[in-house]
Structures are given as structure tokens and as C-alpha cells.
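Homework help board

Subject: predicted structure for assignment chain

Our instructor gave us this sequence and asked us to write out the predicted structure in C-alpha cell form, then describe one feature. I got the C-alpha cells but I'm not sure how to describe them. Can anyone check?
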Amino acid sequence: MCGIAGCANIADDGLRNALDALAHRGPDASGEWRGEAVALGHRRLSVIDLSPEANQPFVNEDGSVRLVANGEIYNFRELREELLEAGHVFKSRSDSEVLLHGYEEWGIEKLLGRINGMFAFTIHDSKINRLFCARDRMGIKPLYYHYAGGAGFAFASELPALLALLPERPSLNTAARDAFFTFGYIPGDLTIRETCFKLLPGHFSSFDLANSVWNVKKYWHPEIPEPRVERSVEEVEEIIRGSIVKRLVSDRPIGTFLSGGIDSSLVTALAAAEKSDIATFSIGFEFAEFDESEYAAEIARHLGTKHTRLFCTEKDALEIVPELPAVFGEPFADPSAIPTYLLSRMTRENVVVALSGDGGDELTLGYGQYPKIVKLRRLLSIPGVKPLLKSISGIAPVASLPAKLALAAKCGGIDELTLLASSIYRLKYREKLFNGDYKVSGTYWSELAARTGKLPIDEALAFIEMNHYMTEDILTKVDRCSMRHALEVRTPLLDHEVVETLIALPKRMKTANGETKWILREILKRHVPESLWKRPKQGFGPPLGEWLRGPLREMAEDALSADSLARESVFNVDFVRRLLDEHETGTADHTEILWTLIQWTANTSR
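My C-alpha cell output:
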């Protein structure tokens, strides 16, 4: 796991600064290479092959191809053997070096079709004068790039590092601003800066140095087949187990995140069956209604793991919150970043690699809002309901149920309903929060919506969120918080073979008898008694609303002062101040929109 950066047809004066900005991702080594028009840089976190021979950039035998890579290739041993038989010479035992020789042997597209892993990498091929960039299928590892017509190309693992490569700081992106105040994160290929973008999951790009021409191509995306593919519980368990076994390969200590929920408990149980000395880590809160850590401790005792538990306090929050803008590099409003940051820091004090259960909800209909949206769709289909709700949209109080339903009435297709499901608490403020027009559009996931075909609404929403919310929120949060502490997090449920298996299952294997995640429950009960994990789902969020009335109140007052908001003319200052006053006095709960505003002002003032 590492950080990468580089540029082509741009002065490379900023490469050292870019690598310094990525030092937290790779504290073990730093490497640079500069050619006539290309510069590549790498910060290394040593996980497989700890020797200096595995430091990057890698170069092939004749010096014509160079590579910098971030991530892990889980089937590297098999690929390495095949490449050795084909005559390639390796200088290390690193998993990343198979990308270099695999490109030589098969070319970029066949290479991407053969590797199993989480990755973002760049290859410079001097023979054809091209630079290739690629990102893994599910978007577990990030890759940012800059391209503005014929003005050159730059890339980096994080946005601050990318900005360090550019001669001038690009202006703020208003489309990204509008998206952020809809979702609480910046979706798709957008970033907060003009001319700076994210390479989408399952895509690769090429840059022709001779003509400064850039293009991008999709090489993979998940598809839901019809008819569905029936699997036995035993088959699915073995596929997940195989994914976990591949992710237990490490030359550094390894553990798992254990929240006590179904997904992390399943990953931990199967990992513990393969590795007897596995360590587990959980985080709890002083506020009992938010705390699941005792459940995690009970499961750890049952599985016999070496368990560590940390409690998140108000003091911890005060220390972490000011760091969040630097951690994410652009606005990000999911407050569960706070416990994720603390969990990552604690885990890194004990191990270098951790397995997580991310992906289970999106793949097996695990979110509770899906049944609610099915009911909402039925309600809106009743003749006369939509016109009635639209007529009260300007009258009903902003936080009322009629106001929320009025927003739903304005939504037409499945993409708008997804927007509603993801952002109802932000959308209800939109008409009063901004001066002038505030645009909300379904374009960020319209292609995904089109691919859902005639799926039932709950399955369609789960498919869209797997490709939208999970990538842009969940995986972004885990990557930035873990890599801030040089902790590598692996996600076995997001192995593309596991993904293809789970999304293809019949719906009855995902939800049955009123319970979600049926298939994962059936596997887990073979290893952990139901009494230890069968309970209502809890989120992984801190009591932020209380903190904004208490220890974070002064920070909120400063971030949302009239002067702070006036830096941009887009906000209705009086309305924002009213929201803050109502929240602080306890007459209303505006936690989500206030936190969104705070993260915006904290990032855009940097």
C-alpha cells in the first residue's frame, strides 16, 4: 500500500512536494524517476517483500517501461510463476512487480482482466510514448488526475498531492459544490477543483505524450444477470473464504476490524479459522445508544481472537475534527470518519494490515431504507397524491414529513429516488440554504440507473448505491482514514469474484422472512451463535448532534460565522444562523446540514 504521483508534459518541480504530501501513505521509502517529459514518484508502505529491492518505481529489463503502483495484487504468485516461465526477470518478490511484467507480456487491457486486487497504478512505456493509469474494479484505491486539453497530464493518490504538481491552483468547481450539498461527498469523476478529476472505478486511461491527447476506457463493471444464478450456502461460503485467504498474505502483522455486526463478524470468523493468531479491533462510544463494542468483544471471546477495544470520547472528537480537512483534501461530511480515524490509529499501533467487512450491505440488501422507498413509490403512484404534495411543497415546514414527501413527489425516475434516499436531510434545506439557483441532478448515476433494467426498486437502489455511495463515501472514508496512519485495509467482500457471485443471487437469498442479508446470516450462524449478533442494525456514527451543542459548539460558531459564510456569496447567512441557533437551543436537530456546512467552510478556506 502506497502513494503515487507524477506528471507528463508538465514541469516536474512539484514532484517532491507531492510525495511529501503523500508521506503518510508510504512512510517506509520514497522513490523518484525523471525522464525527458515524464516524472514518476512513489511513497512506500512495505507489506509484501520488505527488502529495498521492492522499492519503486520499478523498471523492466531494457529500461523502456516503468511502473508506480498503490495497492495489493492478491493473485500475484500465480501470475509471477507464469511470467517467470515466459522468461521475465524479477528483481523482487513484490506483488506490484507483476504489473510491470504483466503489461509487457499481455498489454494493458489483458493485464487488467487477469489481476485480482485493489490498486491504482501508472505505467510509462517509452517505446510507444504513452502513459497508462488504471484503477481497480470497485474503486477501493483512489487515483486523481489533472488534464486540461493539450496542457499536459498529472496524477496522484490524493488531491492535495495532485495540486502540488500544478503550477497554479485551479478554481473551485461549482458542480462539485452542488453535488456535495446533495450527498455529503463529491461523486463520480468530480473533485472540488476545476481540471482535476477522479479516475472512475474499473477504468483505465492513456496519455499520448507526443500529442498531449488523453482518453479513458472502461474495462469492467458489475452486471446483474437474468436469469439469476442459484448457489448453495456452502458454495458462497467457499468463495468468500477464498477471498479472505488471499487477503491474509502479508509480511507484516495482520488483523480485522470487528464491529459486532454481521459483515465484520463473518470476515473475522472465516479469517480466524485460517489464522489462529488473528487480532481484532473495535471502537465504542461513551454514549450507550451508539455503542456496539461489547457485542464485538463477546464475538471476539467466542472466536478466541486477541481483541483490543477503544472508547471514543468528546475529547477525542475535539482532537480529530480539526484534522479532517487535511485527511480528506476536499469536503467530506460523513461524521463516521471520526470513529474510523480513531479505529485506524489504534489498529495501526498493533498491526499494519486489517481486513474489513465493507460491501455486505450493498451486495445483500442490508440497508433499512430500501423497504421505506418501496412504500414511498407505492404512495406516489396513488392518483392525486403527487399534485397534492407538490401544492404544499412551499408551505410545509422545512423539517416536516409533508415537506419530505413533497420532495419525493418532484422525483420521477429511479435515479431521482436514489438521490432522495441518499440525501433527504440535505435536500429539505436546499431552497432556503442558497442564494440563487441550486441545481440537483440525477446525472451522476443515470448510467447506473439505466443498467438496473426492470429490477425491483430495492435491488435497483442497492445496485446503484454499490457503485455510488459505497465507492464515494464508504471506501473513500476508509482509505483516507486508514492511510493517514499507514494502515492497509483489505476488503474481502469486494473481491470482484465475490461481488459477481452475490449480485447474481436470486433475491430470496438476500432477503427472506423479513430479514436482510439472508445468505451472510446463514454462513455466519455456522461459526458464531445467533445470540451474539442477531439484533437491529446500528450505524457507525458518533453522537455528533450532542457534540455540536457541547464540546464542538465553539468550532461550529466559528466555522458558520457571518464572516466565514460571506467568503462565498452563495449562502443565505441568516438562514444558516437560524439553523445553528435552533440546534444549539435544542428546538430542532439540524446535525447533518450543519456538519455539511462546517466541512465545506473548513475545506474551502484552506
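Reply (TA_rk): Your C-alpha cells look well-formed. For the description, you could write something like this. The first helix runs from residue 15 to 21. That's the kind of observation they're looking for.
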